[in-house]
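Input record (one chain):
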Amino acid sequence: MNDDFIDPRPPSRSAKKREAKAIAELAETLVTMAEADYRRLPLSGVLAKELEQARAIKSHGARKRQLKHLAGLLREDDENREQVETFMADLERGHRQSTAGFHLFEELRDGLCDPTRCTETLAEIKNTLPGLDTAKIQRLANSVQNSADKRAFREIFRMLRDAGTAQD
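The corresponding structure, as predicted from the sequence alone:
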């Protein structure tokens, strides 16, 4: 038999349910997202109006109905849904990168505050963040090592974070 003439199977009922649930979760995410991110959302037309209305509703039952309506609109409008999904993926990627950077700065700070790793961490900082005032960082690290100075501990992190964001 020739396989060229066989139509592919339509999606199963379970696959359709999974897709509908994913779209409903996307709608929920859009309604609960931060205001700054919401303002950057690439939506227009009816979908934007309905999303704005859903964000304004406080009543649980009405909000739930509006979410279902919004999910239905997202299911119908593939183009807008794909734009929103791409935007959300980019947003998530940005959050993961900032979290990774945050953890890197914490690790560097902890290395500076540990007397056994201080010199090697300081050398690493000189290589990765050349614009940083290493003398001040070293004074703050000594303060933390000798007297557990919490202010110096926080200041080291701030300096590392500021130097890292200035470098980007």
